[in-house]
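cron nightly-structures :: item 1 of 1
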Amino acid sequence: MSRVWLYDTTLRDGTQAEDVSFLVADKIRIAEKLDELGIDYIEGGWPGSNPKDISFFRDVKKISLSHSKIAAFGSTRRAKTTPEKDNNIQTLVQAEPDAVTIFGKTWDFHVREALRISLEENLELVYDSLVYLKQEVPEVIYDAEHFFDGYKANPEYAIKTLQAAEQAGVDCIVLCDTNGGSMPTEVGKIVKKIKSLIKTPLGIHTHNDSECAVANSLVAVANGVVHVQGTINGFGERCGNANLCSIIPSLKLKLNKKCVSDEQLQNLRTTSRYIYELANLIPNKHQAYVGNSAFAHKGGVHVSAIQRHPETYEHIRPEIVGNTTRVLVSDLSGRANILSKAEQFNINLDSKDPLALEILENLKSLENQGFQFEGAEASFELLMRRALGNMRNFFSVIGFRVIDTKQHEEDMPSSEATVQVKVGGKIEHTAAEGNGPVSALDNALRKALEQFYPQLKEMKLFDYKVRVLPAGKGTASVTRVLIESGDKTSRWGTVGVSDNIIAASYQALVDALQYKLMKDHE
């Protein structure tokens, strides 16, 4: 079984997608998730282009990754300067990554019109930059930008640019379909030709403008490429990049290539959903392998068949990639999902127990209101335990009040929350301030409860996201609030839904606190 190296550029190329933006803290968390998935290279960004990426390379050194190498991205040196004096090159070195990836021009049209230099001078840019970087960083990858378009326009020159990279001793040469217009038949033939001329390991980087990015990547591997670049969920500029959520299982299960372990592959759907959530985007339910509908069956003939033999209408077992079979509009399949979750949460629930159907009906009702539990499994576990009557009520909130005040035009608004909680037979009434109404409410709840449950001091709120659900009501629309909390050992998500954003936030905050206490008292 031959090896294919996985190179993820979600944190750089992926953020160039419309509507996608990550904070530095988000990028660090995504890097940890990609490391768990078994990604070989994580491209953290272009440190020479913006302060956010410089911060990422500084902060990522503070975490411990078990497998992944961190790569920095940049370009070849500018004309009329040397690598030692080129700010872009020097910033790459100063970021101290495990690997550096730089791109250079391979299409003569770009050399003449974009760089406005001679073809020979461009070869020198490529060679000089790579030779210098090979002396300064552990590993150097060369992205041959617009390679397929360049090869089709002037194959002789395109090959010369690759030979310049090879002579510089680069570790991998990546053939890029930058405009995303190449067809799989073209990619296969060209890669096969290049493989016969270039001995350096080859990689592939494709865009999805012709809906062929995944196909082009797989065809390239079938013709000898050993390094594949892409993004989780296919995030990327214009129509996106090659989708690693499709490429990884296809490499392993269809092409019999070694890339991630069986256990890591089971984290694929979780990773996909996690990154959708951090991007604050609605997951594509029809996405191959990891989408909600990827193994969902509705037609009567299909349902009848898959209940006897799943392989009749499923190309793989969904559990392999962390997904599940779903039979739509079927009480039996719905109950099965509830039982599966109960097993996951170590809850003893019999398939014949009427409570299973009660939980299912409650779930359907809540989802109809706008609740979603994909990123809020802590709330779903609490829902199940409450229905089964084995959920201890650690506290109850008698009432709360949140006040926002702005006294002068130039002042920032101030927020204060007052809460009244009951623990056992004792009532605690307290207030706290915050940098916003939700922050104030969170602080007040903690202040009231920490004297009873000191362990809440170690709990942190890591993320807070609000999504306005499509209801056509403008500012009166229903909102869904998703909160991620955690302590020293784990993280968990909770959800709240209301046409009042404070009420929705309150629901999620209370669930987060209850879950922490339940977890600690198990």
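cron nightly-structures :: done
Confidence is low (pLDDT under 50) at residues 328-333.
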